[in-house]
């Protein structure tokens, strides 16, 4: 009786024990077929069990590219890359997940701190403006001059902080949060992982989002310097207003 090697678990089984899923076209041994049933809709929707390039069933996972590959890919575009059997790749993911989750938890805390710092600077300027406006009720010409000379530039700085810092950091924080959630969900899924293709596909999506997030984070380092500049300016502006005795 001819024997075949299952591309999911790599165990040899008799030809008659292999099954072909009518819905997602996955072809594997009976044991993997039964495990696959719960993931069938996911595989059918994402088509992650079929290679996009060669239209063949995937057999391995490339660690360099973080993508599922078929046998033709392994000897082609991924020839010099590190490729693992599907279950081996799942084990590799389990080892990487804690570090990935810790990394994004740390980043989330760091950028939320930057966001709070920006808002504190904004609120500092708003407080200065409120105090100036309070004194304006005295109706003095000097206070009118202060309104013209100080309030308008201060409002401009409040808007600049909003556009150049807060909005960008908020977007980055949202992306960090979304990436972190993916890794959290992946951690939960892998506790009872029974079918490799589904989890490897989810991991690939998480890694792609991680890459997009890191690009955003690279740009934030420039924003940090801008925040420092605004903080220095705010202290100077406050000192200048206090020096004129108007607060």
TrEMBL record:
Coiled-coil blocks: none
Metal-binding keyword on record: yes
Domain (B box-type): residue spans on this chain: 46-86
GO MF terms, alphabetically ordered: zinc ion binding
UniProt-listed InterPro entries: Znf_B-box
Record's keyword terms, sorted: Metal-binding, Zinc, Zinc-finger
Keyword Zinc-finger: yes
Protein name per Swiss-Prot or TrEMBL: B box-type domain-containing protein
Domain of life the protein comes from: Eukaryota
């Amino acid at each position: 009786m001819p024997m075949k090697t299952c591309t999911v678990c790599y165990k040899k089984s008799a030809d008659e024990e292999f099954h072909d899923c009518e819905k997602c076209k996955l072809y594997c041994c009976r044991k993997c077929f039964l495990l696959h049933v719960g993931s069938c809709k996911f595989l059918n929707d994402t088509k992650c069990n079929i290679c996009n390039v060669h239209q063949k069933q995937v057999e391995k996972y490339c660690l360099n590219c973080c993508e599922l590959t078929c046998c033709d890919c392994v000897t082609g575009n991924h020839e010099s890359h590190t490729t693992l059997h599907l279950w081996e790749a799942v084990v590799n993911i389990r080892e990487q997940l804690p570090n990935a989750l810790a990394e994004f938890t740390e980043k989330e805390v760091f950028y939320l701190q930057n966001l709070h710092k920006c808002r504190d600077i904004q609120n500092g300027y708003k407080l200065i403006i409120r105090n100036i406006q309070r004194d304006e009720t005295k109706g003095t010409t000097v206070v009118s001059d202060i309104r013209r000379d100080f309030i308008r530039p201060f409002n401009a700085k409040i808007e600049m902080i909003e556009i150049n810092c807060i909005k960008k950091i908020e977007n980055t924080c949202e992306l960090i949060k979304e990436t972190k959630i993916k890794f959290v969900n992946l951690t939960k899924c892998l506790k009872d992982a029974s079918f490799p293709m589904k989890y490897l596909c989810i991991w690939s999506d998480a890694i792609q989002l991680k890459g997009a997030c890191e690009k955003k984070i690279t740009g934030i380092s420039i924003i940090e310097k801008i925040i420092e500049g605004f903080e220095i300016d705010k202290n100077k502006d406050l000192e200048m207003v206090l020096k004129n005795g108007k607060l």
